[in-house]
Amino acid sequence: MATKANTIALFSIDTPQMRAFHLTWMAFFVCFFAWFACAPLMPIIKGEFGLTLAQVANINIAAVAITILVRLIVGPMCDRFGPRKAYTGLLLLGAIPVLGVAASQSYESFLFFRLGIGAVGASFVITQYHTSVMFGPKVVGTANAAAAGWGNAGGGAAQALMPLLVGALLMLGVSDTLGWRVALLVPGVLMIVMAGLYWKFTQDCPQGNYDQMRAAGMAIEGGKAGHARAGGWESFKAASANHRVWLLFVTYGACFGIEIFIHNIAAVYYVDHFKLSLKEAGMAAGSFGLLALFARALGGWVSDRMAMRGTINSRVTLLFVLMIGEGAGLLWFAKADGVAFAVIAMLVFGLFTHMACGATYALVPFIDSRALGGVAGIIGAGGNVGAVAAGFLMKGTGDIAQTLTILSGLVLLSALCAIAVRLSAAADDRPVAVNNAVAQGEPA
């Protein structure tokens, strides 16, 4: 019987595990490209609709608010229906508001479609779920972080490429008003194409698809009697009763929530605060997102290495240190008085932020493997709660630099939640016996 992979054969698509790995980060990339495609164009859209800073804040809040609910739902849905069906459905449904936003004619309609686009942010949970069921404890942290990091780079790619796409359309004679609308059709079409590829070439877990396994009387995750993976509501209830889930909910809000917030405001901040052009602001903001190409994977890889040399709580210590580095770097970014220092500070704190995201989800498979969907969904939703809270904070202060300063202090406080996650010796992923138990679906 097929089992979880204990190695990552990066240049192979011969196995279900590696096909899932590559297609899930690609789907995630497309989703994040679509999610943040509007952000670098906000200076244009702001001018066309005559938006105030408060209205821009409302749009940023809408972009991440609904993701909280969808992430809570989609995790247990993966347990119930399998990641293949969940991802395909999300890609197809998510393409509707992505295409719809291009037709917006007012602030209200733009806000409505921006709210709908936020649902595609739940793609992260499915990505983390799919790699978690495909890879064993020795490499699951690296697999989770690499897939998430490469997919996450879609946000950075959108920051850099969308202004260039608009520029190219303008050179062809397309008007400003029509240019950004045509550009926003691209990610919607890519999502539909990706849905077809995901449905055709992936399967739910190494053994096959969940519906076929249930029909054959096979327990999902191959555990002992009574140890099959919980489905739907049961998965959510089991996860929500675990205090470590809520501690990581807070820490993920303080790292991924900040990441989303920076994606949404960076271009506007560089244009308004440092008077950069749209293309210059897009390149500066895009550099933050493109750190995800390696930084999130680095966080997961370091977590795996530290756990192999120490204990499971070495993962916890790493997350704590990364959160401290993120908070300090964010304060530097907030206080930078020149564009060069601002970009350097953003890259420094961005490195810590992306690594912290990777280190968080390197811990997720060891919290409760029988309710993985619920755990991944709740913690993932924490990221969006953090982004929404940051959006409301910006709306309240009316000043981006002041908002960043306050957020830096809150990130430093959240590091205390990271260190409080400490797991018992029973969850240690070093011994072979425990590795096998986790791989078979027993609680960590």
UniProtKB/TrEMBL annotation:
Major place of residence: membrane
Domain called Major facilitator superfamily (MFS) profile: residue spans: 20-426
Residue stretches spanning the membrane: 21-45, 51-74, 86-104, 110-129, 150-172, 178-199, 245-271, 283-303, 315-334, 340-364, 371-394, 400-421
UniProt keyword Cytoplasm present: no
Cellular localisation: Membrane
Any one GO CC term of the record: membrane
Position of the signal peptide: none
GO BP: nitrate assimilation
Topology of the protein relative to the lipid bilayer: Multi-pass membrane protein
GO MF annotations, alphabetized: nitrate transmembrane transporter activity
Any Pfam family hit: MFS_1
Superkingdom of origin organism: Bacteria
Alphabetical UniProt keywords: Membrane, Nitrate assimilation, Transmembrane, Transmembrane helix
Family per similarity comment: Belongs to the major facilitator superfamily. Nitrate/nitrite porter (TC 2.A.1.8) family.
Protein name, UniProt field: MFS transporter
Organism listed in the record: Massilia atriviolacea
